[in-house]
Amino acid sequence: MSFTIKDKVAFVTGANRGIGKSIVESFLQHGAKKVYLAVRNVESTKELEAKFGDKVVTIAADVADTDSVNRAAAQATDVDVVVNNAGVLGTTTPLADDVFDVLAHEMDINVYGLLRIAQAFADTLVNNQGALVQLNSVASIKNFSHVTSYAASKSASYSITQGLRDELGPKGVQIVSVHPGPIATDMGSSAGFTNGASTNSVSEGIVDALAKGKFLLFPDEMAKQFEGAYQSFADNIILADISE
């Protein structure tokens, strides 16, 4: 399965900054017809609106709110590709007093948010023979103690992404699971990661993965180290048909 961005309509959550903003820019540079900028604060996309004019449409969407996501999906029935980029990261360890609260928030956004997006857009993506891109993380396959709860939430979202591939893939929807290492964003800095890779490595990687029909994308230098060790397991377990 291959999906070309040119002349397609995209919906990108968390589109106002960081990786999301870079995805918007890469999609339009590769010929996307229109990109919905799905954000909680509709005032936060003015820079992108000024830069790209009527090629972008800001739309209110909060992945923590099922009604908000459903309203956005009802407005964006022309969408070909949905990128669920919005996410949160908290720094906490497994024995910290705040780990329960931090994990609950991360699960609501990173896991339940994915489910809300997938359920709201599934019919549209099937009808349009589109694609769903989920931003996961290398932390979905390797826990780091100071972001223990984040890693747990991303492990869960990666598992659900696999389930969505099994559900929607046979119906003609391409699924891409993106697993970056530390990226130069506010979120990465808040977690104490320095010298992160560029957001462009992720956004351009997504365009390439869609075109090549890849399920797993490890876009940056650190992530590719994970890919080298993980690929055999992925080929033989994750991507294999072991239903019988």
Question: What keyword list fits this structure?
Answer:
NAD(P)-bd_dom_sf, 48% helix, SDR family oxidoreductase, seven-stranded parallel beta sheet, 244 residues, alpha/beta, Sc_DH/Rdtase_CS, oxidoreductase activity, oxidoreductase
Order of helices and strands: EHEHEHEHEHEHHEH
Contiguous runs where pLDDT drops below 50 for at least 5 residues: none
- Which descriptor suits the 3D outline? globular
What is the number of independent domains?
A: 1
Largest sheet: 7 strands, parallel
Q: Name the CATH superfamily assignment.
A: NAD(P)-binding Rossmann-like Domain
- The total of beta strands comes to 7
Mean pLDDT score, rounded?
A: 95
- The CATH topology comes to Rossmann fold
The helix tally amounts to 8
In angstroms, what is the radius of gyration? 17 Å
Reading side by side through the largest sheet, how are the strands ordered? 3-2-1-4-5-6-7
What's the end-to-end separation, in Å?
24 Å
CATH classification, class level: Alpha Beta
What's the multimeric state? Answer: single chain
Helix content: 40-55%
The appropriate CATH architecture is 3-Layer(aba) Sandwich
Q: Kindly estimate the percentage of residues that lie in beta strands according to DSSP.
A: 5-15%
Structural class of the helix and strand makeup?
A: alpha/beta
Protein name: SDR family oxidoreductase
Family: Belongs to the short-chain dehydrogenases/reductases (SDR) family.
Domain Ketoreductase: 8-173
Keywords: Oxidoreductase
